[in-house]
Design brief:
elongated, 104 residues
Length: 104
Amino acid sequence: MDSKIIWENLKNKETWSRLIYMVLFVIAFQLVEALLFAIMIVQFFAQIFTGKPLDRVTEFGSNLGKYAKQIICFLTFSEDTTPWPLASWPSQSHQEQSGIDDNS
């Protein structure tokens, strides 16, 4: 490795700002895990007491899963786009809400 390239990379402000975002999104991911656990408990008891999971919680859980994926992709450098709150919250598309499968 060329030490000049390494030195230039070390001076790159975007690299250091990404590190700060990465630390913040690791914390956000921990909160997502706690929310996932809470959703699991709520849905389990909804299933027991009503015979079906709660629709709004199911939708939120789906969106939360997409958000977790966005965080993981950002943390692993698969994507450069920062997740919510620096981008829009992931939501279900009309096709997903109506149950249409793209793979048909």
